[in-house]
Amino acid sequence: MKEVFSYKNVAAQTEKLAARTGVPKHWSKRKNEKFDVHEICVFFVFFCIEEKSYRRFIAFLVDSKTLNVEKEPHWTTLEKAFKRLPPRLLRKLEQESGKCKHKLRSLDPTYFQTTNPSASYLVRIGRKIDKYKGRKVSVVICPKCDLVSDVFLRAKERHGLKDVPELLPSFVDKDVLGDKEFDAESFHEQIAQVGGRAFVPPRRIETPIWRTKGQHRKWMKKKGLPKKYTLRAHSESNNHAVKTVFGHTLNGRTFWPQARNCYGKYLGYNLIRKDRQAIFIITFYRAKTQTIFIYYLFRNEDEWMLRFVRSAGIMKLEKI
Ligand SMILES: [Zn+2]
Predict the structure, then answer these.
(1) 36 CA distance to ligand 1 centroid (A)?
(2) Statement: the pTM of the whole predicted model exceeds 0.70
């Protein structure tokens, strides 16, 4: 893994991702726009990575010169442009960026704060922080390469099982690891319907098998958990990483800005992670037909990587 990520690579990947996912270049046919939607997506990812106010973010863009835009946008321009990005589209970008070829998925809900008051202020206003929950976010990750393949949050907090129908597309033909919260026959059935398999520890171990309801749950109790279940710990470490790096608070006063911020955090996280995983050592090789061999060091070759290699017209791949 690389020690640091490159802002330029992240910007290039975001633009590619937006083009691949079918994000339109312009929202309007007639309006004279200075920045197209793909550029706004790049600004948004940077904004979520940097965690700055709008004014400080523009100052950062001007001084760092990471994006070669002719003229930096006014800070209110960005504020208005981000409002126009639909959260559903950002979620789609997030799903696209987290694709990998591994067969394992791990599901774990976590809480994000919506405000970040100081401890002394809480004492003064008499709010009990242990009763304050914030927003519940269901996160699906690949425990092998630690990419986040899907995120979902809803305005009103519900049981984690209620989010499963929304997350089903990321469970197609996958082995899903869940914690005790998901010990229900309906969870097993839903995942079996899309061709996957669920592994959940039984909640009440003392109940005998003949009294356990559902064939999947009976089977789980009889066979026990597989060895790969230990990889579920990656979910917890991943949640911790996202919260420490991108902040544990969702910015915005109402639900939709918070959702936008949440999807942006995970999108930025995936892009940084991918950029750090890819290290290229390019060597030119003169053979009968001039073929470029790219020797690459990549912890997990995924679809994104292979597509890049194919598009560059490389004939042979060797792994170091
Ligand atoms: Zn993976």
Answers:
(1) 32
(2) yes
